[in-house]
């Protein structure tokens, strides 16, 4: 999966180059995967797999598929289809593991994972909305090659959480619905759900 993500970066850099840009950016700092010292090894792994596969990668599948559908040039559509296939694999990894382990999770562990989900869903919304500016595609030219409409992308993000992620986690016995409600109650981003003002946070 790591190799696939590196390949995505490489292919996206090639697109920037073809479009006349210079595909050079500073590498952002990559924080270490959390070790969750307050949790036993099973809970720690589940927290990370839920956060990465069931949350982030599942959102990536929805957003990249929307971009693939609206991409103009066929070469871009093909590239996005390739990336999409990898992201589906990254998301399925987590959903399958969770489905397999779900019957053996104790009520205490389910409850603890529910507490974790409040934080993870808040983080997910904060992160995604900071990358999805609440504005239309920047220009007609950008729109023609498939640069997404930020408003539509935000709606798709919330629909993915509410119609795919939360029900999927609930089906594995995790209290995801109450966690999502709690995250909305505390998250500074919740106004964005009702089409409210853009986040103060830079996007
Ligand atoms: Fe990726
Ligand atoms: Fe991925």
TrEMBL record:
<dbReference type="InterPro" id="IPR012348">
    <property type="entry name" value="RNR-like"/>
</dbReference>
<dbReference type="GO" id="GO:0016491">
    <property type="term" value="F:oxidoreductase activity"/>
</dbReference>
<protein>
    <submittedName>
        <fullName>Ferritin-like domain-containing protein</fullName>
    </submittedName>
</protein>
<dbReference type="InterPro" id="IPR009078">
    <property type="entry name" value="Ferritin-like_SF"/>
</dbReference>
């Amino acid at each position: 999966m790591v190799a696939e993500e590196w390949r995505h970066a490489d292919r996206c850099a090639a697109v920037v180059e073809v479009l006349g840009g210079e595909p050079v950016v500073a590498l952002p700092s990559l924080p270490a995967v959390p070790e969750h010292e307050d949790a036993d090894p099973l809970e720690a792994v589940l927290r990370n797999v839920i956060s990465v596969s069931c949350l982030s990668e599942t959102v990536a599948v929805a957003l990249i598929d929307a971009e693939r559908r609206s991409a103009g040039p066929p070469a871009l559509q093909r590239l996005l289809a390739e990336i999409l296939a990898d992201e589906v694999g990254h998301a399925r990894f987590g959903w399958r593991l969770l489905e397999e382990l779900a019957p053996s999770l104790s009520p205490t562990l389910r409850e603890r994972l529910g507490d974790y989900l409040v934080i993870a869903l808040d983080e997910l919304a904060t992160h995604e909305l900071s990358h999805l500016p609440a504005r239309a595609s920047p220009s007609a030219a950008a729109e023609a090659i498939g640069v997404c409409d930020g408003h539509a992308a935000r709606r798709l993000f919330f629909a993915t959480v509410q119609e795919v992620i939360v029900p999927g986690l609930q089906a594995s016995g995790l209290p995801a619905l109450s966690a999502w409600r709690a995250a909305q109650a505390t998250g500074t981003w919740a106004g964005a759900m009702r089409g409210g003002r853009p986040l103060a946070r830079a996007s």
